[in-house]
Structure formats: C-alpha cells, structure tokens
Amino acid sequence: MKDIKLKIAGMHCTGCSSRLEKVLNNIEGVEKAKVSFEEEEAVITYDKVSEKQIIIEIEEAGFKAEK
Questions:
Q1: Sign of the C-alpha dihedral computed for residues 33, 45, 43 and 65 taken in this order
Q2: Which residues are paired to 30 by β-bridges?
Q3: DSSP 23-52
Q4: Residue 4's CB: how many other CB atoms inside 10 A?
Q5: What is the value of pTM for the model shown?
Q6: What are the angstrom distances between the C-alpha of 19 and each of 1, 25, 35, 48?
Q7: Of residues 57, 56, 59, 45, the one with CA closest to residue 10
C-alpha cells in the first residue's frame, strides 16, 4: 500500500469534499481516501492503481489536484 497527499483546488463547500471522497473511495485499487475541505487536500491510501489515474479521476469529478 502507498499513501499520497494531494492539494485539491475547486472545492467550494463540505459537500464538494464529501462528493470527491466518495468518488475516490469508489476507484478500484483505492483502499481509503479522506478529503478535507478546510485543508484543501486529499490523503489517499492505494494499491494497484496509479497516481496518474487517481488525478485523472479527481479532474473528471471537476476538481484540480497536484502534489
């Protein structure tokens, strides 16, 4: 298992962070994802999926992600 912390841009409320957390937790290969609206970041524990694919999924959900 690997962990990554990404800065997330584009969240306007806690509903945004909850929606993104749900998207991340539904990615095959993501063990656990926690998104913080206040800290504008996501902490993701994953295996068998690439960082690139995780970032693509975040962007497809309407947010911007960077390390």
A1: negative
A2: 46
A3: HHHTSTTEEEEEEETTTTEEEEEESSS-HH
A4: 15
A5: 0.93
A6: 24, 10, 9, 23
A7: 59
Length of the chain: 67
Please check whether residue 19 is in contact with residue 61, taking contact to mean a CB–CB distance below 8 angstroms: yes
pLDDT tens per residue across span 25-44: 999 999 999 999 999 999 99
Structure tokens at 21: 């957390």
Tokens for 5, please give them: 């912390």
Please tell me the predicted confidence (pLDDT) of residue 46. Answer: 98
Q: Which two tokens stand for residue 50?
A: 């690439």
> CB–CB of 5/24 below 8 Å?
no
- What letter represents residue 59's amino acid? E
